[in-house]
Design goal:
Layout lengths: L3 E2 L2 E4 L3 H13 L5 E5 L15 E2 L6 H15 L1 H4 L16 E6 L3 H13 L5 E4 H7 L12 E7 L3 E2 L2 H14 L3 E4 L2 E7 L2 E7 L4 E3 L3 E3 L5 H6 L7 E13 L9 E3 L4 E6 L3 E6 L14 H15 L6 E14 L6 E4 L6 E5 L5 H16 L14 H4 L4 E2 L2 E2 L1
Parallel strand pairs: 1-12, 2-3, 2-13, 3-9, 5-15, 13-20
Antiparallel strand pairs: 4-8, 5-7, 6-7, 10-11, 11-12, 14-17, 14-18, 15-16, 16-17, 19-20, 21-22
Helix pairs in contact: 1-6, 1-9, 2-9
């Protein structure tokens, strides 16, 4: 069997790979693009196992601009991704995000808020009285984590992540992209140039451009080409709770200073999660009932005492691709391997960043001027140990 040859090979057919393929094919329908995905059911895809949040509340300008673009794409996703008249329904609900802060965190929150508002975001600072007025169940008990107020982002919300993944995939395929079931076990390279990939079947796909959209598996794939990425596949757990007392309306994604977060879900359920330092690194998808009972339920009841009577409906675990250098995306061509492009390290933000990142990576590959300058996320900072701080490179 002769090797199959493509203009561009994308490893990973999740939301990032699908967005990249869509943007490439939209830009140049003549391209021969292959998208390789080992799990076409997306059972273990990070996006589909997440709480599917989209927000503009960041303190780095580029992250805010990425989210603003995403909001526009996602609000018009159905018509934009329609195939033969059939539109995907991603059920995007702008139910808001509410970040709660203690006194120590307030100055940083206000600085971030000022930047967001300067860029046209609708976020605003809410004091405790305003929070309790809007969400009467909140902060009804004793003082919780020293909370003094919060930033409310009404543009933020959540959606059906699986529908987004499938929407990008279906549209890209309709435009001519080829989706291949298989696992990329090796990036082929010689003399500082990428040459393609080898599949677990032994087949080799040849191309001078390979895009790493492998999510939590990104570092594992890159290592086969001698590229070391500071990305850890880190387990994050989500729990669904049926409370005896029901809120009068939807509750936004609410984030405490400790990092604990929760929101309402369809069916009057409460979803909750908490990213902790001790979270397991590796490719594990087990979830721990004791974590819910010992840590998360008591934390939820501390901020919403009415939720102290509830039943655990289910739990699950997914993976974050955590960039251990600075928690931000790694975007662009690896400086030491021509043709090897990275869209990695999103640290839990991949779903909401996929529309802008897919467009940006396609523009880099095609040699076009980027619609949005995301060069701050260039992979060169990994080699030079230049992490991105909240206000830019440090």
């Amino acid at each position: 069997m002769s090797d199959r040859i493509y203009d561009i090979i994308i490893v990973g057919g999740g939301v990032m790979g699908g967005s990249t393929a869509f943007n490439l094919m939209r830009s140049d329908p003549k391209l021969k693009v292959a998208v390789v995905e080992k799990d076409p059911t997306y059972e273990f895809a990070s996006s589909t196992l997440s709480m599917a949040n989209v927000r503009t509340q960041f303190s780095l300008k580029e992250n805010i601009l990425i989210s603003q673009y995403a909001l526009g794409v996602l609000d018009n996703f159905g018509p934009e991704m329609a195939v033969e008249g059939e539109e995907p329904d991603i059920s995007f609900r702008h139910e808001g995000n509410l970040f709660l802060y203690d006194q120590a965190g307030r100055p940083g929150a206000e600085a971030g808020l000022a930047l967001q508002r300067s860029l046209g975001c609708e976020a605003e600072w809410w004091g405790l009285d305003r929070i309790r007025e809007r969400f009467p169940l909140y902060l009804a008990g004793e003082e919780v984590e020293g909370i003094v107020g919060g930033v409310w982002g009404p543009q933020d919300g959540h959606l059906d992540a699986y529908a987004v993944v499938q929407g990008f995939k279906s549209k890209a395929r309709s435009l001519g992209a080829e989706f291949i079931k298989g696992e990329a076990v090796r990036v082929l390279a010689q003399a500082g140039r990428v040459e393609g990939i080898e599949l677990d079947s032994g087949e080799k796909l040849k191309s001078g451009v390979v895009v790493n959209c492998a999510g939590a598996w990104a570092a594992k794939l890159a290592a086969t080409a001698g590229v070391e990425l500071p990305i850890d596949p880190t387990k994050r757990q989500v729990f669904a709770l049926d409370t005896t007392v029901k809120p009068e309306g939807p509750l936004p994604l609410t984030i405490l200073p400790s990092g604990f977060y929760f929101r309402t879900e369809t069916g009057d359920l409460i979803l909750m999660g908490w990213s902790l330092e001790e979270d397991e690194v590796g490719f594990s998808f087990t979830w721990d009932r004791d974590r819910f009972m010992d840590l998360m339920w008591p934390k939820l009841a501390s901020i919403v005492p009415a939720f102290d009577q509830a039943k655990l409906v289910r739990g699950w675990a997914g993976l974050y691709a955590v960039n251990t250098l600075d928690g931000n995306a790694i975007l662009g061509q690896w400086p030491e391997l021509k043709g090897f492009y990275l869209a990695n390290g999103f640290s839990g933000h991949g779903l909401q960043q996929s529309p802008a990142v897919g467009r940006y990576i396609s523009e880099l590959i095609l040699g076009r001027s980027p619609s949005l300058d995301l060069s701050i996320f260039d992979p060169a900072r990994i080699l030079e140990d230049r992490p991105i701080g909240e206000s830019g490179l440090v």
